[in-house]
Design a protein that fits this description.
The structure holds two protein chains of two kinds. Chain A is 26% helix and 39% strand. By secondary structure, chain A is an alpha/beta fold. Chain B has one domain: Rossmann fold (3-Layer(aba) Sandwich), CATH 3.40.50. Chain B is α/β, with parallel strands linked by helices. Classes of the chains: A alpha/beta, B alpha/beta.
Chain lengths: 447, 254
Amino acid sequence: MTETLTTHWMQAFDATRLPQHSEPEWLLKLRKQAFEVYLDMPEPPPPQRGLRRIPSLKVDELSALQPMADTESVEALLNQRLQSWLQTGQAFGGQTIAHNGQTLQTQLKAELEAQGAIFCSLHEALVQHPEQVQKYLGSVYPAIAGRELALNLAYWQTGYFLYLPRQCKLSLPLYALQSLSGSGSLFQRSLVVLEAGAELTLVHDAWSAGQAAARVSDVLEIQLGDGAVLNQLNLQQWEKSVHCHSYSQAQLGRDARYHVLNLASGSLYHYLQTGTGLAQKGAEARLLGLFVASGEQHFRQQSLQNHLSPHTVSHLQYHGVMRDQAYSFYNGMIYVAEAAQQTESNQLSKNLLLSEKARADAIPNLEILADDVQSGHGAAIGAIDRDQLFYLMSRGFGQTEAEALITEGFMEEVLLQFPDARLHAPVQQLLAIQMLQDQLAEAESEG
Amino acid sequence: MSQPSLIIRDLHVTVGEKAILKGVNLTVNPGEKHALMGPNGSGKSTLSNALMGHPNYNITHGEVLFQGQNLLEMAPDERARAGMFLAFQYPMVIPGVKVFQFLRNMLQARRGADVPVREFRKILKDKMQLLEMKEEFVKRYLNEGFSGGEKKRHEILQMALLEPSLAILDETDSGLDVDALRIVCEGINAVSAQQPDMGVLIITHYQRMLNYITPDFVHVLFEGRIVKSGDKNLALQIEAEGYDAIEREVLASV
């Protein structure tokens, strides 16, 4: 089905950039509206002199990613990534694997499918489960939520759809790998919907198979029904030339639990927005973050803990390890509405600076309108504590080893708060490899 | 007889601009137990930190030989691997680092060789029994949420594992109640019974630790110098008469 589009729309979308799928009319309309919202929203003002900022994604800078030249070798690489997970003994209940916007593999164990679970590409879901997609697409992040979010809603090319019916509790985690290579723009949007009482652990993995210098917009919309539980591991390990904007937000039903661990070590620029809407009584969220940056990497994290109902709880703890000239900026908001009495919320941002040129800033914000709440925030930025280092060295640890131990402990403190302990070992391994690579790169640049 | 464990000659140490130690002389032979006593601010902790190589303590003059090697040329970790041990007055909390892994890595660093987990568990179990410690203890994070007694017992456990040739115990009695003090001191005695050649330097304000651990020598540090040395009776004298009496005696003799 080909739609007649307005001139405006045609100018924005050239044929090579359009997803090669026929789409229903409502979706084309949604895309078009989103694009209009994007055009209507003012561009952010230019940065003040001397301030570093992540450039925003602009429509005129977008170009299509080249399709894979050699599908087999890409698949082999992606399988390596998957294997590295499986080698830690972690089995998955299903996986979707996409590269440069094309879904290469979707798989879900038959018994899970029999229970009514859905895990497939968003385009396949449009064909198989159109009502569900229409209901949820843009429900968490409508176009008006932000300029880049509007652009994503207009342009998304790829993504997955994950749906669990009522009381469907998955014992094995699901794995979604998004990969890219070459240059161009990748717009992905994924939907995760857990009906009441459903439970799941999801690994959302972003990793480059080969050299990549792309712009990525990755949007994840999450709806959790009453009493649903989602543990989500959000990995961003793109090539260090990628420019990535990630948005994920969860709307929680009554007594729902949302635990997310954001782990980012890739991309030259990484903007990460994590939000949680606590609009129903008893909802609880834990937002965790581990950010490992080196070289010229520039990370920004923005968070929202939105307490709209009584007895809601949210904890945020983000730890960053900055090396070389890396820079990290955290800006977080705890909002507690007048009705949200007896809520508990806190946010803590810490950064360990491993070189003299590494920098970090943190701006925690509280806006509390209710009067019977517990809330707190804190930030700490500094080099490795000399006394901690001395303590370890007095026990025979060499300086490099002692620093590594303190750094590992610093990350472990956050990692171990992630409730699905099965993922601790694989993540520890990923972190260890990353730290080693960064150390070697640092030694090389010094030598 | 082998060479002395430790020889300190005319040691001067400053912290920032301030001179703290102004010429300390001390020799510890293998197997000897020395108690170094002194009022607050006399420089006791400065001596222990300087001996272990804390970067904030500047050695401006003097010499320290550890088993004949020039200690002052060695980094803290080299001193530790050579067999020197400092039980900290205030052990550092290191979040996210598990006690078990820490202790095993520590022992591997000291031995310069891998210690298989199975072997390590066995060694650890024996040493923990000496100190009446529960096995669950090693699942915790390094000094995080430890009580005063747990911190000090953990320090002595490290000493027991590392089997140093010289152990400096920096106010190990501080923050301990009567029972914890007894357990820690008995632990120290048990370790030194297993290692009769270990030299021990006990740094303390009070006599109470010396009720359990009998020192061969007692020294009084006052304004950065050792002003008086004697046997265990000197500690009893201090307990009875206070540091004031010693102070007056010293000032009179100048």
